Amino acid sequence: MNLYRASRVHLWLAPSDIAAIEALPVPPHPRTSFDEAEFRSAIAHSVSFTLAEKVGMIAAAAVYTQAQINTIFLVLLEEELRFNAIAVRILAARENDTARENDTARENDDRADDVDCGFVWEDYG
Q1: Would the pTM count as exceeding 0.85?
Q2: How far apart are CA 62 and CA 30, in angstroms?
């Protein structure tokens, strides 16, 4: 689940909020078995829940069944995959826009050089 946590999610989530959620203790949960650090991290990096909802989800870990824990992980994984797909498309579009802007700037520079020489290529086209 660490794919989008590296950088993209920080465009939408405050690092201080992520750190606060990841630092919360998970109450004892004798009926369930899961990686507590991954549980906190998955919840902290979710873009679907408010800070208060995230705190509540971690506080309620003691009363969840194993099926509920598994469902939480599944939902957060699906969210992460959707978010990654959207983020990749957004970043690719930004890169394309930047490349187009750079190409346009180079063309304008080339035309400015032509004018500086006393002629414009289009005149002789």
Answers
A1: no
A2: 8
